[in-house]
C-alpha cells in the first residue's frame, strides 16, 4: 500500500499562524507550487509562515505545519490527485485539465516518495527557504521520545501521613 502525508494538528497554532489553516486529516503535499510567481523575500506575516513551514491540505487548500505518514488506498490517492488537479487548474491557471492532472500526479508522487521510507505514524515537518534565488525545501521526521514524566506522585509507606499537611500550602 502507498504511504502519503496527512495533515496533523497537535495544538491550535496553525489557526493562529496561517491565513488558511488546513483541517486535521486532509491528504497533503508540500505545495511549493502555490507560491509560484510570488517573491518570498517580499512575503510578510502569515503568508511568509505558509511559505516557510506549510504543507498544503488537499481538501481545504489550507496549510498545516505537520503531517503524519499514513497508508492510502489507490482510490484515496486518485481522489487526492483529482482534487489537486482541479485546484491547480482553477487557482493556478493550468491551461488544460490534462496539464493540471500531470502536475498533480507529479506533486503526489513527490509526496509519496517523502513518505516511502517512513513507518506509518511518523510525523514530518518541512522548512522552505529562498537560497541563491531558488526555493529550497528541507524535510525532517519527528519521533516520539519515551521519557520519564516531569513529575510523579509516588506513595512511600515510610513517610507518615501527617508529614505534609496539604491544607497549609498557599493557594496558587
Give the overall average pLDDT.
89
Q: Beta-sheet strand percentage?
A: 15-25%
Secondary-structure element order, N to C: EHEHEEEHHEE
Measured distance between first and last alpha carbons? 52 Å
Oligomer: single chain
Give me the secondary-structure category.
alpha+beta
Shape: globular
In order across it, which strands form the biggest sheet? 1-5-6-7
What is the rounded Rg? 22 Å
Low-confidence stretches: none
Give structural notes.
The chain contains 4 helices and 7 strands; from the N terminus they run E-H-E-H-E-E-E-H-H-E-E. The protein has 172 residues and is of the alpha+beta class. It has one domain. The strands form 2 sheets. Strands 1-5-6-7 form a 4-stranded antiparallel sheet. Helix 3 crosses helix 4.
Outline the fold blueprint.
Blueprint: E1 2-8, H1 13-17, E2 28-29, H2 45-53, E3 55-57, E4 63-64, E5 66-72, H3 74-92, H4 97-116, E6 123-131, E7 134-142
Antiparallel strand pairs: 1-5, 2-3, 3-4, 5-6, 6-7
Amino acid at each position: 500500500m502507498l504511504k502519503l502525508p496527512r495533515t496533523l494538528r497537535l495544538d491550535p497554532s496553525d489557526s493562529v499562524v496561517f491565513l488558511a489553516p488546513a483541517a486535521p486529516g486532509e491528504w497533503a503535499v508540500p505545495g511549493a507550487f502555490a507560491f509560484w510567481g510570488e517573491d518570498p523575500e517580499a512575503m510578510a506575516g502569515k503568508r511568509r509562515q505558509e511559505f516557510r513551514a506549510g504543507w498544503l491540505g488537499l481538501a481545504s487548500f489550507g496549510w498545516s505545519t505537520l503531517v503524519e505518514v499514513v497508508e492510502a488506498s489507490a482510490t484515496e490517492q486518485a481522489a487526492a490527485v483529482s482534487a489537486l488537479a482541479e485546484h491547480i487548474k482553477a487557482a493556478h491557471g493550468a491551461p488544460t485539465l490534462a496539464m493540471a492532472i500531470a502536475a498533480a500526479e507529479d506533486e503526489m508522487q513527490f509526496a509519496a516518495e517523502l513518505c516511502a521510507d517512513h513507518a506509518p505514524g511518523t510525523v514530518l515537518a518541512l522548512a522552505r527557504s529562498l537560497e541563491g534565488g531558488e526555493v529550497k525545501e528541507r524535510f525532517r521526521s519527528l519521533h516520539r521520545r519515551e521519557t520519564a514524566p516531569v513529575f510523579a506522585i509516588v506513595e512511600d509507606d515510610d513517610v507518615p501521613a501527617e508529614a505534609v499537611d496539604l491544607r497549609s500550602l498557599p493557594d496558587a
